[in-house]
Amino acid sequence: MATVDDEEIAAATVGELRPYGVEVVLEEYNRAWPDWYAEEEAAIRAALGDVALRIEHTGSTSVPGLAAKALIDILLLVPEAADEAAYLPALEAAGYALRIRQPGWYQHRCLVRRVDDGAPRDVNLHVLSPESGTPEIERILAFRDWLRTHDEDRVYYERTKRELAQREWKFVQHYANAKSAVIEEILGRALPG
Predict the structure, then answer these.
(1) Backbone conformation region of residue 139, classed left if phi is above 0, alpha if psi is from -120 to 50, else beta
(2) 8-state DSSP, 37
(3) What pLDDT digit, counting tens, does each position of 44-66 carry?
């Protein structure tokens, strides 16, 4: 949930940096999204075996009743995210492509699968390690779990997303950045202390 500027986006991008340049399209909650996640989780487990320490459905598609982009966000924990040789070739063979490398932000990696490239659905696979990514892992899961059990904040977050979706964004990260204040406000209620 880091806020990043255009230079940081360019520096972290693996491959060609393409502007987003279109509206964010939100769909009503789709009851198929958990099944889509389950299929992706099975493919990741088959590709990685014991290297996959934990796999979680995150993002808006993981919250029943929440409108979202039809894109499955997945959190994958591996022993060491910086050790790409331990997991990247297997994930690439399973159809994922490394798109983001952020060594300065919890060693975060993001791999994607896109319908435009022949995948069955759009997926963002966020890779972190328990050692280096613990604070962000806790935040991601706390935010998801809070929205699943607190209708008022789920409605508030959806309203924010719908308002922001009316704008055009150069990069999808700009849309994510624009949600940060509301996410932090909700996390203030979700995280103890």
Answers:
(1) alpha
(2) H
(3) 999 999 999 999 999 999 999 99
